[in-house]
Amino acid sequence: MSHARPPGGYRFGEGRDSVVVVPARVAAWLIRHTDLAKVRIAARGTDPELYAVLHDVYTAALGWRASATAGSIPTATAEVEPPSSISTTQAAGLLGVTDRAIRMAITTGRLPAERDGNRWRIDREDFEHYRATRVA
Fold first, then answer.
1. How much is the pTM?
2. Residue 98, CB half-sphere, CA atoms under 13 Å: how many?
3. Per the domain annotation, does 3 fall within a domain?
4. Are 24 and 60 in contact (CB under 8 A)?
5. Which residue has the higher pLDDT, 98 or 133?
């Protein structure tokens, strides 16, 4: 895993010639939590540069998601199956913390999870995002 750069650390160049490098994990987060997929599809055929950039963001997100959720890397046009979920006990074991620490992260909103009866289920992709933020 890479370490987070400070603000401005992902931008290269100045003005109209500047570019921003988006790490694959961040691309996956953007795709999951925004309407970027809809924007990408809407841009197809109307703005070739916008579509190309969003397509590359989408492809990077798929690659990160596949490796983070222990799947195979799908093609850019393949539909993505929902990643599996894990329990708070499994998450705690993977992070080397207590189950209580995981439940606290859930109740404070730092780790998204859903109730399944009297247990929490954590989406594997959300867990990987949480793990990456702990390392950064």
1. 0.61
2. 3
3. no
4. yes
5. 98
Q: Looking at the domain assignment, is residue 51 inside a domain?
A: yes
Answer for the pair 128, 69: CB distance below 8 angstroms, yes or no: yes
Q: How many residues does the chain have?
A: 136
Domain that holds residue 45: 11-68
Residues contacting residue 85 through CB under 8 Å, at least 6 positions apart: 114, 121, 122, 123, 124
**Under 8 Å between Cβ of 68 and 122:** no
**Element (DSSP H or E) covering residue 12:** strand 11-12
Q: Residue 11 is inside which H or E element, if any?
A: strand 11-12
Residue 5 forms part of a structural domain:
no
Residues 6+ apart with CB under 8 A from 124: 68, 69, 70, 83, 84, 85, 86
pLDDT value of residue 46: 82
Residues 64 and 89 in one domain: no
Total number of domains constituting the chain: 2
In-domain check, residue 4:
no
Q: Are residues 61 and 15 in the same domain?
A: yes
Q: With cut-offs at 50, 70 and 90, classify the pLDDT of residue 73.
A: very low
pLDDT digits (tens, 9 = 90+) for 84-95: 889 999 899 888
